[in-house]
Amino acid sequence: MAFISTKNTIRLIKDYDLEQMKEIWNQHHQFLTSTGRIHTTKSIIKWYENRHNDFHEYYGYFIDSVLKGFIIVRNPKNSLWIKMLAVELGFQFQGVGRALLDFVIQKNEKNQTYTECLIGNIKGLNFLITYGFKIIKFDSEYNEYTLKHE
Ligand SMILES: CC(C)(COP(=O)(O)OP(=O)(O)OC[C@H]1O[C@@H](n2cnc3c(N)ncnc32)[C@H](O)[C@@H]1OP(=O)(O)O)[C@@H](O)C(=O)NCCC(=O)NCCS
Fold this sequence. Notes:
Elements: E1 8-12, H1 18-27, H2 29-32, H3 41-52, E2 56-63, E3 66-74, E4 80-87, H4 96-107, E5 113-118, H5 122-131, E6 133-139, E7 144-149
Parallel strand pairs: 4-5
Antiparallel strand pairs: 1-2, 2-3, 3-4, 5-7, 6-7
The protein binds coenzyme A.
């Protein structure tokens, strides 16, 4: 009898994961930045390198070594900012987004966690509110809410 098991891991994203990250990014590009940027392999490598030098950390959720979702956090001295979170289409509503948020929030000892969400992203906003974030600000220049987790 064959025994099938899956291994779920959250770990830092490495440069060899960027091709998979690009695919997930482009599925949700309209929600990830105010410009709706779509990535090529070249542009995501450059973007990743630039942000690594600016206190950003990238974590991925892997099932059997295949990337299913990612979270990007910025980690300045006094608060944790969740800059991006995305889960592969077809793997949503299976706990991947929650697991990634739990991971970065538990790992971080600071008690203030913030994120932003574009006003048109109703699903993302509902997800964040379900998770426990509250809207604290609206920025009309970028059309986005700032949310705080308590
Ligand atoms: C938003 C997103 C990250 C959620 O990830 P996910 O893996 O589907 O979410 P989970 O399965 O971990 O759901 C966690 C909880 O949020 C709830 N939830 C998920 N999507 C929701 C939605 N659209 N509206 C309301 N609740 C939602 C789930 O029911 C679950 O609740 P529970 O833990 O009480 O059962 C994912 O849908 C996504 O990639 N969206 C596009 C990218 C995006 O919008 N990113 C920025 C916004 S965070």
